[in-house]
């Protein structure tokens, strides 16, 4: 249930940010879980925009400048966002918070559903991704989905239909399932949470 709430939040944020591209304003005073997820989504959107900008570009100086700016997003902003997302979710799962500090609907919804979380006995204790890494992947896949759906409006090819079907019926459900499992294992204290291992895109160093 909590994993579904996080997934829907990411989808809505991606749809809103990409649909109103000209109105995107970066929020600097990040406080809530929604704030941090929104900022993470923005980092990934900027990476996609970087890829679009350099496609077919011949000016190496401009490409280098854009690449440096993009690398900064992943070296500075993304690691901090990922650590904050892990910290907030773990505190919510372990009920380590004060009511006065809660400011967004997602945080309140997580708290409401912690008591309804599933049984850890249904899962093994193996996992490879942290909470924020799974959220990171969901952000990326929802951005990809948005671009595919935008292309689909002008070209409803069987190839695009297949790609969207795979995303909607395989990739997103798989990530949500993995997130749900990890949330349950952490909430029930069946696993000691491993500190975040921030991964970089290929070519970002």
Characterization of the model:
- This protein is an all-alpha fold and 205 residues long.
- It has one domain (2-187).
- It contains 6 helices and no strands.
- The chain has helices at residues 2-19, 33-54, 60-93, 105-114, 131-154, 158-187.
- The longest helix has 34 residues, at 60-93.
- It is globular and about 55 Å long.
- The two termini are 36 Å apart.
- Residues 195-205 have low confidence and may be disordered.
Features:
mainly alpha, disordered C terminus, 205 residues, 6 helices
Give a quick precis of the structure.
This protein is 67% helix and 0% strand. It is mostly helical and 205 residues long. Helix 1 crosses helix 2 (33-54), helix 1 runs antiparallel to helix 4 and helix 3 crosses helix 5 (131-154).
Question: Hey, roughly how much beta strand do the residues contain?
Answer: under 5%
The largest pleated sheet is described as:
none
Total number of domains: 1
Order of helices and strands: HHHHHH
Mean pLDDT: 80
DSSP strand tally: 0
Q: Count the helices. How many?
A: 6
The shape, in one word, is globular
- Low-pLDDT runs of 5+ residues are 195-205
Termini Cα gap: 36 Å
Radius of gyration (CA) equals 18 Å
Helix and strand content put the structural class at: mainly alpha
Percent range for helical residues?
55-70%
């Amino acid at each position: 249930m909590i994993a579904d709430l996080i997934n829907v939040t990411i989808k809505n944020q991606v749809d809103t940010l990409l649909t109103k591209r000209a109105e995107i304003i970066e929020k600097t005073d990040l406080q809530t879980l929604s704030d941090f997820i929104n900022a993470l989504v923005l980092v990934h959107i900027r990476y996609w925009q970087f890829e679009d900008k350099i496609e077919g570009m011949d000016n190496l100086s401009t490409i280098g400048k854009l690449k440096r700016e993009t690398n900064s997003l992943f070296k500075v902003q993304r690691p901090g966002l990922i650590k904050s997302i892990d910290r907030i979710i773990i505190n919510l799962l372990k009920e380590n918070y004060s009511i006065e500090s809660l400011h967004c609907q997602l945080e309140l919804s997580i708290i409401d559903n912690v008591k309804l979380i599933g049984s850890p006995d249904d899962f093994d204790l193996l996992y490879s991704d942290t909470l924020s890494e799974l959220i990171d992947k969901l952000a990326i896949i929802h951005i990809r989905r948005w671009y595919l759906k935008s292309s689909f409006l002008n070209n409803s090819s069987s190839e695009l239909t297949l790609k969207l079907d795979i995303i909607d019926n395989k990739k997103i459900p798989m990530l949500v399932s993995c997130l749900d499992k990890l949330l349950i294992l952490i909430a029930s204290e069946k696993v000691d949470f491993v500190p975040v291992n921030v991964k970089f895109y290929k070519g970002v160093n």
